[in-house]
From TrEMBL, chain A:
The gene is dsrH. GO terms for molecular function: transferase activity. It comes from Candidatus Aquicultor secundus. GO terms for biological process: tRNA wobble position uridine thiolation. The keyword Transferase applies. GO terms for cellular component: sulfurtransferase complex. Pfam families: DsrH. This is Sulfurtransferase complex subunit TusB. Keywords: Transferase.
Automatic annotation (TrEMBL), chain B:
The gene is tusC. This is Sulfurtransferase complex subunit TusC. One of its GO terms (molecular function) is transferase activity. Keywords: Transferase. The keyword Transferase applies. Belongs to the DsrF/TusC family. It comes from Candidatus Aquicultor secundus.
Length: 97, 114
């Protein structure tokens, strides 16, 4: 199951709830305001690094660019819209909005 | 005082807030802006919304000065927890701690949340 998170982890419990139910190995895609979780140097960095022990974490490039984020946490994979489509093709999805 | 609390582009709040600020500026009101929580992201430098196909309004915060809107404030805690410094912004708001912000809010006639 691919988990889609599109709300800021600083403003919403979307990421928290996602982590509560995501099974080990399930990929997590951060997009729209969700990408703030992928930014390097925030108070959440250690937590995201922990999450990556159990889940591949992706961040949508177009949303990172729109918000002026150049540096993502080491290990977060940046993907574009075609990459997003490929992920969705390969998995069932669960959206945490 | 306008209180900007939401991130840009994910929702319309930040953009509409800025529009309202500019209108109020035209009426020569004593307008000030406070950036707290995810609102601090709305003045992040280096935004490029081309791939999303939507208007990039972050640089527009720079024109506020031309409207005589010079009172910009930012919550230190919100900046710090997001790993941001004054160098990350298109404008240079005054950095305040929570006690200073509480006092400033008490002094306002009206607060507009966005």
């Amino acid at each position: 199951m691919l988990h889609l998170v599109n709300k800021s982890p600083f403003a919403s419990t979307s990421l928290e709830s996602c982590l509560k139910f995501a099974t080990k190995g399930a990929p997590i895609l951060l997009f729209e305001d969700g990408i703030y979780g992928a930014m390097s140097g925030t108070a959440l960095e250690a937590k995201i690094k922990d999450v990556m022990k159990d889940h591949p974490v992706y961040a949508l490039k177009e949303d990172l660019m729109a918000r002026g984020i150049d540096v993502v946490i080491d290990g977060v994979k940046t993907i574009d819209y075609p990459g997003f489509v490929e992920l969705v093709e390969r998995h069932k999805t669960c959206t945490w909005s | 005082m306008f209180v900007m609390r939401k991130a840009p582009y994910g929702t319309i709040y930040s953009f509409e807030g800025l529009e309202t600020v500019l209108i109020m500026g035209a009426y020569e009101q004593d307008v000030s802006l406070l950036f707290v929580d995810d609102g601090v992201y709305s003045i992040k430098k280096g935004t490029d919304t081309t791939p999303l196909g939507i208007k990039n309004f972050s640089p527009t915060f720079r024109v506020l000065e031309g409207y005589d809107i010079e009172k910009l404030y930012i919550d230190k805690e919100s900046m710090d927890s997001r790993g941001l410094t004054l160098d990350d912004f298109v404008v240079e708001p005054e950095v305040l701690d929570k006690e200073q912000i509480a006092k400033l809010m008490e002094e306002q006639d009206v607060l507009f949340p966005f």
